[in-house]
């Protein structure tokens, strides 16, 4: 397939909003333009994906549309082969991914379910049903790609050979990059603060029992960023998906009953059970994250100060301290380091959190900051120390300074070749038909 290589990942970017828009506004007279066994590619699929491609700032060219069509056909080929090879994606995986996708889509409408429903002329449930098959297909494609490319590695000699083939005037130019790590401590919340959160939730619960809307109160008071904008609605969940305390509280209830306040690792909740279907249940909740007191924050600060002293005395390395003591699950396993897109520890200053950037701007390479307060991505008050390990000035790509990035590019090229080999073989196992309008693309050549 001529265009598979450059287009392989385009369809995994999430096109649901644009796809819906093009069909709603009648921009495309739909028809089948390709078949792969029992799977079809519609003209609206091609046009909406092409619109998404253009919206990302890419140039409009006939060749780009051919690449996208080839990629859509390759996706259908992977799905067809997954069916033959019994590659399975579970309903739970689809539901979890769909929930995250819906939150992303809703964020484009200011978190307003009403705006989305008005724009598309359908309910949230209908919209989810419309894109569920698309989400499942994309997960199947990802699973197939992982299966095909698993175990592929590159040797140092292959990396050097890959780099030597890049023309000198085509080498990328990298902006300033830094290595920065953190050790995070989230203050333990005192019992008085937890008791105050429970008192507030009891007041909210009383309002619901008196006739006020649970969803309205959730939007006003809940501190769960994922569900508050949806009126606290969490949708259907299988057993084992939620925190154990949450699940236990929800499943003790009768439909429409509201729990008393209870604690989980995320904070203090009240939950309303909406419906049960066998092993699944639908619920909504209001979460309050009890704020730590000044004494709680001071205790966390002193704790990090003692760790910093041990690091400065060479009693423990920063990386080991992060792995053993940091409360940040995203960086602790990396020795506290922020990572780039290919898993490297050197991050462009343009991609750093502005607070981190301005902090290290006043530090010297090798410095470890004193404990400082900040808010985590989910809104919790926390304290951290930062380690400014290194700084690399703007430069043109070279093997000495950019080995990890070049290695990742070489690995991606090798995986792409493996995918091409797979496609050329797999297309013999299925029926593929493409509308003659697209003969100029030479997709089957």
From TrEMBL:
Keywords of the record: Isomerase, Rotamase, Signal
A GO molecular function held by the record: peptidyl-prolyl cis-trans isomerase activity
Domain PpiC: 175-275, 278-387
Record carries keyword Signal: yes
Pfam families: Rotamase
Protein name per Swiss-Prot or TrEMBL: Survival protein SurA (Peptidyl-prolyl cis-trans isomerase SurA)
Lineage, highest ranks first: Bacteria, Pseudomonadati, Bacteroidota, Cytophagia, Cytophagales
